[in-house]
Write the structure tokens for this entry.
Amino acid sequence: MASGKILNVHIALPAQNAPDLLEQLQIWGGMEFTPTSEDTPSYETSEKYLRTSFILSFLSSYAPKESLFKKLREGPPEVTHKQAQEIHASLDIDKSYEELREMDLMLKEAESKIQENQRDILFLEEYSGINLKASDLNFNLIGARAGEFAGDKSVFEESDLLKVEVALKGKYSAVFYLKDQEEEIAGLLEESGFIDIHLPEDQVVDEKIASLERTNTALLEKIKSAEDRISKEFLPDLFKYRVLADLYENQEERKKEALKSTSTEYTRIIKGWVPEVEKENLLNLLHEDFPLAYSEFSEADPEDNPPVILQNSKISRPFELVTSLYGTPAYGQVDPTPFVAPSFIFFFGLCLSDAGYGSLLVIGALLGLKFFKLGRTARNFLKIFLWAGGASIVVGALLGSWFGNAAEATFLNRLKIYDSLESPELFLYFSIVIGFLHVVLSLVISAVKNIQDKNLRDAFYGDIPWILILVFGATYALAVFAGLNVLLTLAAPFLILGLIGVLFFSGYESSSYIARFGSGLYNLYGGVDFIKDMLPYSRLFALGMATGILAMAVNEIAGFITGGLRFVLVPIVLIAGHLILNLFMSTLSAYVHTSRLQYVEFFTRFFKGGGRSFTPLAWKNRFVDFVKEPE
């Protein structure tokens, strides 16, 4: 029920052996490092790592894109550490970096120049056909300007100043005037809305456009030549660069962790956390490969903020994902995962409550686990849906729901023991009872933990009285309703004992007996919170009913379709209605509301968060999967 036990470990060994030990510890992946002193030196990323990252980023932009399906199907390629070292020796990272860096700059400059030229071409195409260049308008005594009259040019035409207007092409003109009249002419042109155009300096427009296009063609050929070289010389080694990227990234991780240790001229001291179950593995590693190393283990002190490792059975382990989404329990506190697993599976089954949909979830999860190489989180997620889908099959079969009423006339309907449409109130009552048991379980967990931690007052003055009130209060009410006098006699003393506990002892922190009693009355009134916590479990009933009713509606709509197109439309309606609409919405709702019942109604009574997850120095596989050498 509690999280796994963590040990504090100190390792002392010859300084020259420290790098090898760090690498072995990283491959092993079972130790979290902690600083041996308050002052940790600053960390600088190595040039090799930065250069490899650049090479990989640059080459990846030219590599063909792999489909998501292929990535999921094949997973990352496997590489041994020996193979990684051989790849490292076969590549000259510095030489490749210099060549690719120079190529990258050239390509960026060429692409920038092409874009600039293209903008100039688009600009000049407006003036195509004007057989005039800027140098043609340079005279000693005569001034000249080329452009268009965007406004009323009558002011310009009616002026007595000496000037000549020559049409160039379409709306464009060239204006010639005496230079000593330049200021007056400029004023007239401004009044006439004259807009200057900027012609090429030494070429006419069409020649300039042709020149820019020739330049762009040459640049494109240069780019193609560079890309061909990249494809032939560098892309074949992309996999090797990915291996090196992972190799260097893990070296960087070791460097960062090494800064947490303390060194003298001859000795290195390493400190960290190790799960108790991994203690023997660490001792074996040190004994076999580092016989001069000395290790010392001690119990974890909660004051040192030790990490938390969740250790659960094979069935419960995937549901650590549900727990972690809420938070990490503090060290030494209750890990709710063993309780989350069965309740989550059961609640999900009640929410989905259709054997057909459950079968699809199971099949999908099995296919994903069988044929896709997924990470730990993704596999756990599929395992959750595998169990949840199985529960949905059981609940759906007992309710007679197979894609709604699709199997009503088949042998599958013989499995039905209850029809929720005929008497839905029983489903509702059952959901409330489930909520009652779940809330009581949370109090039991809290009481047991308080007793283990010797918080006896919290257990006997807080948790246990409420357990007595809830359990025997419900028993008493049932006995009154059913007329069972034996149960009345049995339940009454325990109910009274619980009431006394809350009224007179739940306010034990107060020194005055009157204050204790007043606090007890207030706490007893607060018992309505338990009813409030049980009511949300009616969502199990609501969602379970909604899934079946919506599935039946889809079947009814499909049944209304007649005519020649029914063989086309019916499958579309069934697939869209059942798979895209109902299965997706109902599965999402089941997951969300089942999680909410855990987080809001269950965890709040005993869960103490604030812990931090165990994060050991471990080999990270971003592009490839590093595996052990074959024996």
